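Demo today. Your pick:
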Amino acid sequence: RVSQLWQRRKLKDLHEDLTTLERIDENFGAHPDVYSSEWSRRITNTVEAEIDALAAKARDCLKGREEQVEQRLHDFAFELIMLGRIFDDLPTFKDFATIKMSALFNQCQEQPGGFVHLHKVGIVLEQGTVGKQEDGKVIDSDQRLRKLIVTPFH
């Protein structure tokens, strides 16, 4: 179910399931004959692996020659928005996602033309054209997230 909710980007539903599982873990964790905390660990590992995969996809946008990276800046910004959704919808994993996002910013800075690319990503995010589209417009939650992500650029 975790993978299904993740694949459909039903992160709020996933958060509800994780919260329920956390309560079960708190109430029944001391009773291994009734409940195994291994379930919770396995689900946490699965979600963290999915976040790692998102970060890897963003990192792939930073590979190649400088002009190739330049061409993929919108894709990179989109992946940052996808990571940003975790802040809202999976608060349990906010710190983990923040670490991944910081590492991406650092990697971007360390490359040839990195500061220029990072500045351009900030501009792309500031324009508000990246994110999930509905009726030809980026959805409000992605607009808010892009502002949250772009704040360090100011």
Notes: The helical segments are 2-7, 11-28, 38-60, 66-71, 73-89, 94-110, 114-127, 140-150. Strands lie at 133-134, 137-138.
